[in-house]
Sequence to fold (259 residues):
Amino acid sequence: MLTISQLAAYAGVTVRAVRHYHAKGLLPEPERDHSGYRRYDAAAVVELIRIRTLAEAGVPLSRVRALLEAGEDEFAAAVDDIDRRLRAEIRERQRHRQRVAQLVAGESLALPGEVVAYLDRLRELGFRERLIEVERDSWILIAAQMPDQVAGLMSIKRQQVEVPEIRELYRDLADMVDVGPDDPRLPELADRAVAFIEAAAAESEGVEDPFPISDDLVELLDAAFLELVPCAPRLLELLEERGWTGWTMIRRVESPSGT
Fold:
C-alpha cells in the first residue's frame, strides 16, 4: 500500500495535484488506516495516471470523470475528438512560431520577398539607411493595400534603380532625406527631378497605367512622405513651381483655365 507521496511519485504528479483530484471527485479518497494515514493501492495509481493523461491532453476536468466511466466506443470517439483538437492547436502554434521567426527576419515581417530584395539592393548600391527606412514604410502601406500588384511595381522599381542617371538622382535625394527646407541644394534637385519626370511622361504618353493606385492610398503615401522627410514640403513646392504636383502620383499642374 502507498502513501499519498508515493502515489504521486508513481503517477508523475504532485501531492497537491492528487488532493485537487480528490476535491474534484475524480479520484476516490481512501479511508485512513489505524495509524491515521490514507493508503492507496495499484488501482489508484492506474486511475491517477489515466486522469493525468487526460488532463495533460487538455481535457477539462469536468469531462474527465465522464470519460473515465465511458464505454469503449464513447471513449474512443472522445479520444478522436481530443486528437483533432490537439492537431488544430499544433497547427496554430506552428503559425505562431512562424510569426515569431518573422520577427527575427525584420523587414520580411510585413513585406513580400520582392520588396525585401529591392531594399537589400539599395543597401548594396550604398544608399543611406534613412532613405531605405522611408522606402520600407511606404512599401508596407502599398503591400497591405495592393498585395497582388507588388511584384509588378517592384519590377519597375528594380529596373529604374539600375539606370545610372536615375540612381544618381535617387542617391542625391537620399543624401538630403534629413535636411531642412532651406537647404540650398533643393532647387537643383527639383530641376533634375523635373527633367526625369518630363522624360518619363513623354515616354509613357498615351499608355494606360498598369498599376493604378487608389486616391486614398496616394494620399496616405504622400502624407507619409511629408511626415518622414523634413524637406518634403519645400521640395513639393519647388516641383509645383516647375509645373508638377504630387509625389506618389505626379501629374502636371493644371493651368487656371483648366487647359
Observations:
- The chain has a mean pLDDT of 86.
- The chain is about 65% helix and 0% strand.
- The longest strand covers residues 244-245.
- Strands lie at 244-245, 251-252.
